[in-house]
Design brief:
heterodimer; A: mainly beta; four-stranded antiparallel sheet; 53% strand; B: mainly beta; seven-stranded mixed sheet; 1 helix
Chain lengths: 115, 116
Amino acid sequence: AQSVTQLDSQVPVFEEAPVELRCNYSSSVSVYLFWYVQYPNQGLQLLLKYLSGSTLVKGINGFEAEFNKSQTSFHLRKPSVHISDTAEYFCAVTLYGGSQGNLIFGKGTKLSVKP
Amino acid sequence: GAGVSQTPSNKVTEKGKYVELRCDPISGHTALYWYRQSLGQGPEFLIYFQGTGAADDSGLPNDRFFAVRPEGSVSTLKIQRTERGDSAVYLCASSSLAGGRTGELFFGEGSRLTVL
């Protein structure tokens, strides 16, 4: 079975500082990897995804993530955060060739950006 | 509307009652999904519809839970004999066929169910 671990439940950071949100996954087969973001009072939206190819993927709002197969990680990074990045971030996986839309999510990391 | 719409946004009910939650997907999206998010947890997959049929209902926790999509658009999640453990935010998402294959789901804001 697949699982996703987000190592930090909360990450406080000052505005314009860099941030890394950590995600590790467990799977015996190939997976697709995702980061979703949930802004206050909004639905989840896709931030970025890794399907194949380059291990460094770029998403919306200046975020990027790097797939590391040997470490089974998919950490999310941003070099300089804004107040507006305050949100909850969810890492997710789905099996390559598996049931459509059956995403396995981590528990989420709440990013709080302070002025 | 432009996004996935879910009603009601909040529902409080008593243990043992029947509940219906409604989802109106993005126009043109053939795939629809239900997820459940309990407090402090990430969303958990419940069921996936392609058109009118349930293509994958492996996430439904037991036979008290049932979902329909009779005309291939709006879907209703039905919970019978509610229990306190059913309290959660129920999320609906939709996607195109291609988008669903690569995990690009569009989520609604959810329906918060509280069972007293």
